[in-house]
Batch of 3 targets.
Target 1
Amino acid sequence: MTAAAPPPLIDLRGITRTYGTGEAEVRALDGVDLTIRQGEFVAIMGPSGSGKSTAMNIIGCLDRPTSGRYLFNGVEVAGLDRDQRAILRREYLGFVFQGYNLLPRTSALENVELPLIYKGIPRPERAARARAALARVGLEGREGHHPSQLSGGQQQRVAIARALAGDPMMILADEPTGNLDTHRSHEIMQLVVELNRTEGMTIVMVTHEDDMAAYASRLVVFTDGRVVSDRTTGA
């Protein structure tokens, strides 16, 4: 007998998200269906106000849908309380943002250790895992550097290492190259592709740049709160 296929990592069904009421109501998401499986690299695009960032926030458990179902690895997220959603974020998700979000007076190693502190991991293991994560992104020898001593591309690598240190099932990247020049942007995307193809890391990335989205193997386009296109890219 053939074993049943594992559930999708992300399964959004009829997701809506509205803000405000009456004439002031804004429907940011309008019946979104989206499935993402373990190991995919998905780029999400769309004009400003299309709903792509709202969808990312719901996937990352930073926001809750007004209606619809969200299953993460087969578990219904809507039934989780605030603390349980925080645990899901901490244990299973890694986040990378446009602005790096590094502590300026803290070394690269200490920045990468931060999520491990919240996990209650002992200091020696924290340091070892942080060093390993920095090595994965090509920053050996930079462990003691502060953000001001690193280029923008290096700072984003620290942010990616921080996301990886917690051993997540998926990385959510919100405009990860938005603050970088073209050369550094392509360096970061090559790193992301390597994490996806070599290590099987699931990547979901919001971007407004066509050349960055081209690195993904799948492109989902939002318009007016709906998915209007979902296709493989051949990348």
Note: The beta strands are 10-19, 26-36, 41-45, 67-72, 75-76, 93-97, 170-174, 202-206, 218-223, 226-232.
Target 2
Amino acid sequence: MSRPMQSGPTSSSPDEPRRAPSSRLTWVDSGRGIAIVLVALYHSASWLLGAGFPIDTWRQINEALSALRMPLFFVLAGLFAAKWLVSSWGDLWRSKIRLFAWVFIVWEAIGSVVYMIGLRMKGNGIDVLGAARDLLLSPFAPRFELWFIWALALFFIVAKLLRRVDWRIQLAVAGLASAIALSGWETANVGWSGSIKYFFFFLAGLYLRQTILSIGRMRIGPVAILAVATWVGLSTVIAIFSLRWVPGLYFVDCLLGVFTGIMASRALAGVPRLVSIGSNTMPIYLAHTPVIILTAYAVSLLATVVPFGATAWLLPPIVAAFAITVSLLLSNAAQKPPLALLYRPPGRGVARVS
């Protein structure tokens, strides 16, 4: 078999993976766990803010954490994607794209209904016909947090189409586009914008795999500590002073965020619960936002009777933990039809977002 991702004598990446390891890397699962927990925390704070809770501090906290959250998720998603570039299109469809497409459509429909409850909670009007139209258009213009699933399917397809293009050109072009998009340029759709922002990080995980794995093995010395400290300081400054608009600054922050995320993944690889969460991110990603919306709505009704006061600041991590737990319980309960169809197309198993 020819070497993967090769289009010429000098086009293959020096970090090009030969074969995915047979054993799982614990820190990779803990990294996925960190990313999905931060995603749930972000959405919990956002919907609780929308419900009127005075937790503005969480806005800046999540802003600072954003440079780690999605970049790390996409780097880890690309880390073991190499085999799909040399597999047949049929294998890619059956093993990845079909699953992503199915759960995207199913949970877009569920999300559309729950989102209207969220709009009511915020005091906004509900446009049923508009929601139905947006649902029909969602395969082309994804909505809600499910843009990640849509983007991931797109990344696998585009990476396979580009497999014979020099990996350095791919990273350079995707990196430039990412730097521009992360500096404040937005498209008309969250999925389109997110794809431009984060395709570089997926490609980095794909083509710089050995470098990423080496970082996961490196000694935590002065250089690593300085890099993490720089990320903490830079993320804080960007969040406090709203400096994302500075060209390239937030992109650099995201690169440092990936490094910091890997260091944190290593440090927390001994936490079994986090590793377990990271090895099963798909059900959490699909269900956590509807659970968060319904929970935020219930808590907002409770607040009219029992004011939370200063304790409202504790709500985002509590709601996030609850949403993760409920999402996993729902997935565990949905092992047989018809509930199993929430997580897999007929005849397919549940796959991890990786």
Note: Residues 32-342 form one domain.
Target 3
Amino acid sequence: MPQTTVHLMRHGEVHNPEGILYGRLPGYHLSERGHEMAARVAKHFAGEVSESTPAGVTPVRRDITHVIASPLQRAQETATPIAAAFGLELGTDERLIEAENYFEGKTFGVGDGSLRHPRHWPRLVNPWRPSWGEPYKKQVERMRAAIEDARKLAEGHEVVLVSHQLPVWITRSSYEGRPYFHDPRKRECSLASVTSLHFDGDRFVGLEYSEPVADLLPGASKVAGA
């Protein structure tokens, strides 16, 4: 059976000095560091040495035949250098978009954020659905449909899908058989991280998680390979 890998990638860091929960709002682009993250991941997939390549490790060029991104600007900007590194046209899939969220456009927190206002509290009554946004099941359905189409498109090769933290994490949970309800602080899905889904034919056989730009994450050591 053909071996296919679907790389689910989260976009890079976004320029958001106001700390807005931007969700699907237009106009939110990568920060300077976010563009560096995107360039580094492109080198990672292309098998080129970068500042984050550990000493003594020889990068391997991946067999990527398609690169597809969410329509949101931050995802498109993250995917562009990856597509360019392989001489590919960047594809767009609406199903990879960020989850809908009632708090979109607002700051979110107890201090000066939305949670201090009682009018917002009814949106928090059901964390299992969740009541503040797009149902987890709906996110999984659209993401897995996009993944299946991408798997068929790149059968026997590899494909990169650039999406957003919550859809990627919830989709990973579905493949691993975990409950969708979770502590957002414990998601293993950092900026520009890659969750690689492996298929034998149409059968899911496992996944790997990696952080190609770990040294660029906020608070991380700047030592190459850290």
Note: Strands lie at 3-10, 64-69, 91-92, 158-163, 194-200, 203-210.
